[in-house]
Design brief:
about 270 residues; alpha/beta; Rossmann fold; six-stranded mixed sheet; six-stranded parallel sheet; binds NADP nicotinamide-adenine-dinucleotide phosphate
Length: about 270
């Protein structure tokens, strides 16, 4: 990489963010298409987002990804918010230019990675666990695909609120509909630091697809899915696919997925 006066700057803004895998593959994508650009992590605390955002604009940064805890707060700072992001209520990709534009590519990342394994989602029954920020992107994708969706969350009011926005039916326990679910999506942060059973995992069965948004963890859900013969997917591919879409928005170039996956090879099991 030759850093010069013409190098364009991109990055990911979050807190914490040092662990992010995005720089690993975004820099390879720039290199592959021959763009003089670098992608770096920017560690920005919640209360510093506005200051950081103005700074990034002033420094002529070309584009950023946003991660926890900034995806919702950024929305009100932008000149334009894409309707997908507007409905989801979160932006994970900003393109700087004459105006600042916000997009959500999480839902595309989720959909592309799930489709790779299950194909068409229309007619499939999906049980979604969780009602936080990422659940909104997941529910948006599933609604677009006309899947039948059941939603469960620890805090029931939050699930109820989401089911009024996205086509879904709330359930009081996952076990209520588990048997009929083709796909179970865990959008909760359970498994990230603390782990325990969100439902009786021994009821999972062969052929069911279990998609967990977190990645790089040997979660109980992963362990039980494999034990019960279910197909287990973690969120690493989702991360890559959302990043590929961000890259396309910033540069107008269609990125090569192989380049990104090769960059993360040792993380893909
Ligand atoms: P969030 O907005 O903070 O939502 C957290 C969700 O987890 C809520 O539904 C919360 O339930 C639930 N939860 C937390 N602790 C719980 C517990 N002890 N028992 C039951 N439920 C619990 O977080 P988020 O932005 O949706 O992110 C969730 C996870 O997805 C994170 O681990 C994140 O890293 C991952 N993620 C991955 C990707 C990717 O590209 N692979 C993208 C986005 C997010 P309550 O409402 O009851 O609190």
């Amino acid at each position: 990489m030759n850093i010069s006066g013409n190098t364009s700057l991109y990055g990911v803004v979050g807190y914490p963010v040092k662990h992010s895998l995005s720089p690993l593959f975004q820099n390879k994508l720039f290199e592959y298409v021959g763009l003089n650009a670098v992608y770096v992590p920017f560690e920005v605390k919640r209360e510093e987002l506005k200051t950081a955002f103005e700074g990034l604009k002033a420094l002529n940064v070309k584009g950023i990804n946003l991660t926890i805890p900034h995806k919702e707060a950024i929305v009100d700072m932008l000149d334009f918010v894409h309707p997908d992001a507007e409905k989801i209520g979160a932006v994970n990709t900003v393109k700087f230019g004459e105006r600042t534009e916000g997009y959500n590519t999480d839902w595309i990342g989720f959909l592309n990675s799930l489709r790779e394994t299950v194909g068409e989602l229309k007619g499939k029954t999906v049980l979604v666990l969780g009602a936080g920020g990422s659940a909104r992107a997941v529910l948006y994708a599933l609604e677009k695909e006309n899947a039948k969706v059941y939603l469960w969350n620890r805090t029931k009011e939050k699930a109820k609120k989401l089911s009024e926005i996205f086509k879904s039916e709330t359930v009081s326990s996952p076990e209520e509909v588990l048997d009929s679910a083709h796909i179970i999506v865990n959008t909760t942060s359970v498994g990230l630091t603390e782990d325990y059973l969100l439902f009786d995992y021994s009821l999972l069965k062969e052929g069911q697809v279990v998609f967990e948004l977190i990645y790089g963890k040997n979660t109980l859900l992963k362990e039980w899915s494999q034990k019960r013969g279910a197909v287990y997917l973690d969120g690493l591919k989702m991360l890559v696919y959302q990043g590929l879409e961000s890259f396309r928005i910033w540069t107008g170039c269609k990125p090569n997925p192989k380049v990104a996956f090769q960059a993360l090879e040792k993380h893909l099991k």
